[in-house]
Structures are given as C-alpha cells and as structure tokens.
Amino acid sequence: MHGDVVLVVAAVVAGGVVAQWLGWRIGVPAIVFLLVGGLLAGPITGALDPDQTFGDLLFPSVSIAVAVILFEGALDLGWQGVRAAGRVVWLLLTVGAAVTLVGTAVAARYLLDVQWDIAALLASVLVVTGPTVIGPILRSVGLRGPLAAILEAEGTLIDPIGAVLTVLIFEALFVASNGSGSIVGAVFVTLGIGILLGLVGAGLLIVAFGRYLIPDKLQNVTTLATVLALFAVANAWRSESGLVVVTVMGIAIASQRWVPVRHILEFNETLRILFISGLFVLLGARITSDTLRALEWRNAVFLLALVAVVRPVAVYLSTLRSGLDRRQRIFLALTAPRGIVAAAIASVFSLELAQVGVANSQVLVSASFTVIAGTVLLSGLGSRPLARRLGLVTDRSGTVIVLGANSVARALAAALNSQGLSARLVDLDRRDLATARMSGLVTHHGSVLTAGTSAALDLEHASYFLAMTDNDEVNALATREASSILGRRQIFQLAPGRPEHRLWWQHTVGTFARPLFSRETTYADLQQRLDDGWTVTATRLTQQFDNLAYIRRHPEALPFFIVDAKGRIDILAGDAPRRARVDEVIVALVAPDPGR
C-alpha cells in the first residue's frame, strides 16, 4: 500500500510537470492540460482514484496546499497590488459577490431544480474565483496594468471570503438553523480571528528577520512553518478562518519595507507550481464516471447562465463610474474561472450533506465540476484570443531586449529590426540613447536591475535578453536579474573582456546567461571589427549558395543570428553551435570586400 501511494505521488508530480511544460511550449495555460490529464487518469481510464489512494489524508493535504498557494498569491499581490486594483476590487468583493451569490442561487433553483438550501450552498461555493487559476492565465496572456491587478486581487481575496461564507451558510441551513443575524456576526468573528492571527504571524516574522534572529538559510522554511502552524491553529479555533490568516499574512509581509522578501516569494512560487500541478490533476481524477454520466443539459445551461448572465451583471454593477473602458469591462466580465478551492469545498460539503441525509447532495459536486471545468477551459483557451481581439495586449513574442546602446548594440538592433523583429535598447547613457533614437531604434532609459524598468520593457514576455555593454560587471548583474524573470535559455551575454574575469567566466558560464555568439566574443572584439569597416549583412541561403559556399565567401564572418523559413529567430550561442540551412537567412558581421 505504501509503495502504491509513493508511485501515485510520483506519477502525479511527473504528470503535472509535463502539463506545465506543454503549457509553456504551446502557449496555452497549463491548467487546461492539468485538468485534462486528471480526467484521463481518473474517470476515463480508472488508473487513479485519489480517495482510495490517500484516504483520510486527501483533504488535509489539499487544505495545506491551498493555504500555501493562497499565501504565495497574497505575498505576490501585497497591499500595493490591492491599491493598484482600486475601488473596483472592493466592489467586486461586496456588490459583485452578493450579485453572484443571489444570481447563482436563483439559477441553481430553477435550472438545476434543487431546493433553495442546496441552491444557496452551491452559490456560496461558486462565489470564489481563485489565484490557482487566475495567476497562471494572466501570466500566459501577458496582461498587465489595472485590469490584471483587479483580477489578481479579486482571485486572492475572494477565496477566504467564499470559504467562510460556505461554512456559515451550511451551519445556518443544515445544522443550527440560525437566523441571518447570527450569520453576519459569525462572519465578523471569523474574519476578526483571521486578521488578528495573520497580522501577528506577519509581525513575528518581520521582527525575527529584521533583527537577524533567523539565518538566511532558514528564513524560507521558517516562513512556511509559521504559515502552516497559524493556518492549523486558526482552523481549529474557527472553521475556515485559516484561509483568512494566510491571505492577511501574505499581504502584510509583502507590504512592509524593513526586510526583503523576494527570496521567500521565489521559494513559495516553486511550491505553488508544484501544488497547483498536483491539485488540478487530483481534481480531475476525483470526478467519478457516475458524475460525468450525471452531467446533463441542465448543467450546461447552468454554466451558460453563470458565464453569460450572472458574471456580466456582477461586473457591470461593480464597475459603474470606475474609469474602466468598455473593452476592459468585457474582459473582466468574461474572466471568472473557478479553481481548486471551489472543488475542495464542494467535495467536503457534499459528503457532509450525505451524512445528514440531504437529498440531491451529489448535485453539489456535478454542478461545481461543470462550472470549474467549463470556466477553466473557457478562460484558459479563450483569454489570450479575447485579450488580443479587444486590444488589451500586443504580441511581444518577437521582442528582443538589448542591454546597451553603444555602436555594437545599435548594429545588432538594426539587423534585428530589418528581419521583422522588435529590438529595444535599454541603457543609462543618454548620449548613446540619443544616437540610437536618431537611427530610428526604440530605446528606454533605465536600469534593468529595477522592477520598474523590467515591467516597462515587458521583459517577462520578450523573446531574448542580450547583455552587450562594455562593462563585464553590469552584464553579469543584468543577466542574473533577467534570468529570474525570463529564464536562462533566452538570456545571452558577451564574453568578459578583462583577463581577470576570464577564469570566472569559464567556471560560471551558463549559470545566469549563455555565451553570446561564441565563448570568446567580447565587446572589444566587436567594436574593433566595426572600426575596421566590418558590416552586418543578411544573406539567404539557397541550393546554389548553401552554408559551405557562404563560409568560403566569408571565412572570417561572425554569425549573429539565423532566421528560419517561418521567420523565427535563433540567436547563435557559444554553447550550442548551429549551422544555417537552405531557405534560412544568416545575419553576420562580415569583413569588407577587398575587391571594393
């Protein structure tokens, strides 16, 4: 039995990583592949039954994973993110949530033909959206600005509200039969406990880190242990208040300026990817074949009502006089995917309803799964085309960020632009930037070591980052910063020019960046060739003039990049030699023709 559990965990983790890779490779949010993979492993093939495999440990494990994901989302959001979202997010959490609750309950009552108590409980479950889905979708779409801040803030803050609301409605309608006044009081008590413990936990960590009471190597695990401990204590004190605790802790820690938290965020982001991968595979696998067979036209109409009526009305009322234009309001109205929190809550309370003998309790699971799967697929597959159609994002897949505006960088940027790409030069030297602008190049004044510059350049969605200044230290620091955003595969750096840096370069090449053009090409080498009259040329290879003929014609040429037959660029690197093929364009720095 133990071996079976280990095998299942390993398979789920491996499958989740494969789904994440497919999402990155194809450009579709990985959530789609994770959900489909879970359905294949569970109800379709019967290879995975999470309830049988994990038993009583399944829901506690899911709760812990959700707590970590919610904490990471709040830590990434911070109070700055809440402020950036503005009053719209507070209206979505109040007016929007109320409209969603009432509208969903009415739709469930008349479309699913269930009693009002089941309808109200289902509506409280489906109030949430959730950072487990919103975050990956926004990163995939490349959406930024106030609209992205609103969606992220809503997804992070609505999760604990929805969970608390579901618990209270269940207790009022199915256990204690309390009045609405007791529900309001219980909400304030639960939120108060969560806010208090969250602020206490954040304060303890900030003081401990600020006074260096915790060594750097233990700060990540100390944070994780504190989050989980307070989450457990809060839930034991008041059911579902733990989600409030982790949300408040994350926002409070991210909002202070006394201690750095970036390393904590990076650690928790790794856990977030791992947990989201596992949770969505398990979500799909937990759906039984009976539940799939129970899905009928009522569920489809119910999903359509939520997507086409309830959410748009909630957004319309929440964004009146908000300053958002029509395009932004349309995207906001059509983007409300439900995630793992809704699935976990629905599963738990479906079992609770069955235990107290409530009829039609299975509707809670089947309807919730329909909404979760439908909204995840609709938002996962449709958000990017919708954002582009509305003009909210532009395609930055052909953007190359070049650090430096010197003559070498300008020559390469001009060559990139000539092949249909978009090169952006970033530097602090205003004279070089002015020269670049007069040459028709796009420039940005700033340091890539600051978050503002990276955001302005949209570095996260660029194709490549090339460090081409004459300062070895600046190149190294910049590539280290850029690699944490873009990934080392797309980061390049010229070889160091100073001899004392060569030994360091030989031992660390590939740590943060790949060698640009070759392992020996320095800024001084390129500048000398330009001074000697070398020029950048673009040559398309043919059957008659192939790569071998090109080398014979230009034996000393230094290839910069290759453009394939589909117009895709391939920057040449010293760690991966590449030969140009027929119908490809080779762009290189070539010596002057002696016959001219």
In brief:
By secondary structure, this protein is α/β, with parallel strands linked by helices.
Give short descriptive properties of this protein.
596 residues, alpha/beta, single chain, Rossmann fold, six-stranded parallel β-sheet, 24 helices, Na+/H+ antiporter like fold
Provide structural commentary.
This protein has 596 residues and is an alpha/beta fold. The chain has 2 domains: 2-389, Na+/H+ antiporter like fold (Up-down Bundle), CATH 1.20.1530.20; 399-590, NAD(P)-binding Rossmann-like Domain (Rossmann fold), CATH 3.40.50.720. The protein has 24 helices and 10 strands. The protein has helices spanning 2-26, 30-44, 50-54, 58-85, 87-111, 116-125, 131-141, 146-175, 180-210, 216-237, 241-255, 262-286, 289-294, 297-318, 326-333, 340-355, 362-389, 407-418, 430-438, 451-457, 472-486, 499-508, 523-531, 547-553; strands spanning 399-403, 422-427, 442-445, 464-467, 491-493, 514-515, 535-540, 558-563, 569-571, 585-590. It has a 6-stranded parallel sheet, sandwiched between helices. Strands 7-10-8-9 form a 4-stranded antiparallel sheet, covered by helices on one side. Helix 5 crosses helix 8 (146-175), helix 6 (116-125) packs across helix 17 and helix 9 packs parallel to helix 11 (241-255). The model is unreliable at 177-181 (pLDDT under 50).
